[in-house]
Specification:
The chain is mainly alpha-helical. Helices cover 51% and strands 5% of the residues. The two termini are 20 Å apart.
Length: 382
């Protein structure tokens, strides 16, 4: 849910430039031969970004469908921007993000642990990534995705960045489901934090080919820390952020590894360049990080999935972990228990009493639907 600042794997000045690499300092070959060699360098070429824009469009379309399914005028007593018809928003007290109701999101595939465990709806771990709680939530995530994702796709291509995004989103959903089991969860934040984690891993695994690497590392760590700190606010699923970040961090060592410049120079040197001493494609530390990351990722996702399907609540085994997602202060509390109300009717008069805080109110309703009563209950309890 938190906006993510602009950064990219190119935080430090790389020794590469566009599609080329700097040639060795020897007598230059003919311009035609040099140009042909430069065109052949594939390991540092710029890709045309189309997948990330497609993801953005898909998220926007899914939000539109969610609002259509929500149909506020039919299912709620009051709506925001009612002139939008069935695309109008739920009342601010029910959803301050300008979006649909929780029941509409649940119909669309929001992450609900009870449905994953008891009704075997594991697909919700993926579908929740494409849903958003409101306009503000959608804008924050999509702007971040455009800024970060397009630059990553230009550098590494749609296959690797697409897998990084999707698997990180799954990792974020998994950790969220293991800790937040009383509410639904939606959003692409876990996948976005996966891209940030991948960028950090890319800087580390390709450490030798970057200049100004310490400054780049410091800047990226500060950006990540700020965005994780935003996650301690109420109603922000920081467990999805953390799970997505660590999944993306491990995936970065697997998908975003770069060959060494010596190997690239030797492979793409045009005719007329002297032969160079053999240079390995990857350094030993790159291979070690690749293997360790692959093992940790597979083990982590497997163990997490087994614990989830067994109905394990990790809060029972970690008394302080809930502070990672919300820290209570004098300005807000972290109570996220589902709201419920007792309803009494006398003719068209309905009296609702919130079970959470004891508040009650009477409404004049004519044959209200269950969703209308639930919406009034949410407003009353908040």
């Amino acid at each position: 849910m938190a906006a993510i600042s602009d950064t990219a794997p190119m935080l430090g000045q790389s020794r590469r430039s566009g599609k080329t690499i700097h040639p060795v300092s020897v007598e230059s070959p003919s311009p035609a031969a040099a140009a042909a060699a430069y065109r052949e360098v594939k390991h540092f070429k710029k890709w045309f970004p189309w997948l990330i824009p497609t993801f953005v469009v898909a998220n926007v379309v899914m939000f539109g469908i969610s609002m259509y399914v929500n149909n506020c005028p039919k299912n709620s007593i009051s709506c925001v921007a009612r002139f939008l018809g069935r695309f109008s928003f739920q009342p601010f007290k029910e959803n301050p993000l300008l979006g649909p109701s929780s029941s509409a999101l649940l119909k669309m595939g929001a992450l609900d642990v009870s449905k994953v465990v008891d009704k075997h709806q594991g697909w919700r771990l993926i579908t929740c990534m494409w849903l958003h709680g409101g306009v503000f939530h959608l804008l924050a995530n999509m702007l971040s995705l455009i800024v970060i994702g397009i630059r990553l796709e230009q550098e590494f291509g749609f296959v690797r960045v697409g897998l990084l995004y999707l698997i990180s989103g799954l990792g974020g959903s998994l950790l969220s489901a293991l800790f937040i089991q009383s509410n639904i969860s939606v959003g692409a934040s876990g996948a976005l934090f996966g891209l940030l984690g991948g960028m950090l891993a890319e800087l580390i695994v390709n450490w030798t080919i970057y200049a100004n690497k310490v400054a780049a590392l410091f800047t990226l760590v500060i950006i990540i820390a700020i965005n994780l700190a935003v996650g301690i606010l109420p109603h922000v699923d920081n467990f999805a952020h953390i799970g997505g970040f660590f999944s993306g961090f491990l995936l970065g060592f697997i998908f975003l590894i770069r060959p060494q410049f010596g190997w690239v120079n030797r492979r793409y040197s045009p005719a007329g360049y002297p032969s160079q001493s053999p240079s390995p494609k990857f350094k030993t530390y790159q291979y070690v990080l690749w293997v360790l990351s692959l093992i940790l990722l597979v083990v982590g996702l497997t163990v997490g999935m087994v614990l989830l399907l067994r109905g394990v609540d990790l809060n029972d085994h970690c008394s302080w972990c809930h502070y990672l997602s919300c820290v209570p202060t004098s300005k807000w509390n972290c109570n996220t228990e589902p709201v419920s109300c007792q309803a009494e009717s006398l003719g068209n008069q309905y009296t609702l009493t919130c079970s959470n805080n004891g508040r009650n109110s009477t409404y004049s309703l004519f044959n209200p639907s269950q969703s209308q009563i639930q919406g009034l209950c949410v407003q009353l309890c908040r």
